[in-house]
Write a structure and sequence with these properties.
Blueprint (H helix, E strand, L loop, with lengths): L16 H11 L8 H8 L3 E6 L2 E7 L5 H17 L1 H14 L1 H21 L4 H6 L5 H4 L8
Antiparallel strand pairs: 1-2
Helix pairs in contact: 1-3, 2-5, 3-4, 3-5, 4-5
């Protein structure tokens, strides 16, 4: 089991080996997903959309993906919200604004995106935590001219 997600140390990282292994097996070849948004949609962690007459309304998650992996990611997200300071801040902010259930799913979505980028790029978890939106700024060498 030399897969990047499956050999992570359990301390200091949000997901456990079972979640990582389930992610790798259910997602399959990561090259078939061009963007992390597609992985989130595949897992059913994206919101449903009800739009009419130029008005966009986002509902609950679509639940289109594998229910077992989705529940594992939500559980891992709950653990991650306790261990990772950045995720803890995000969880607390969302919990205050939208409720605990919405916050847990948002953290699960973020974990799925991080796991996707761990498979897609040579970056380790620490580099991925610093990533904001686009993947290229933190994956290149530290260069002050990049800002």
């Amino acid at each position: 089991m030399g897969h990047p997600l499956c050999v992570l140390p359990s301390e200091g990282w949000a997901t456990r080996p079972i979640t990582s292994l389930a992610f790798v097996l259910i997602i399959g070849p990561i090259e078939r997903f061009e963007r992390s948004k597609q992985v989130v949609s595949y897992l059913g962690l994206n919101p449903q959309e009800h739009s009419s007459g130029g008005r966009q309304r986002l509902g609950s998650i679509s639940k289109q993906g594998n229910p077992m992996l989705r529940s594992l990611l939500v559980e891992a997200g709950h653990t991650a919200a306790r261990l990772d300071p950045q995720l803890k801040r995000m969880y607390q902010r969302l919990k205050f604004r939208r409720g605990a259930a919405v916050a847990k799913v948002a953290i699960a979505r973020k974990l799925a995106v991080r796991m996707y980028w761990m498979l897609r790029s040579p970056a380790d978890y620490a580099q991925l935590v610093r990533m904001r939106g686009s993947s290229w700024p933190t994956l290149v060498e530290d260069n002050p001219s990049l800002g």
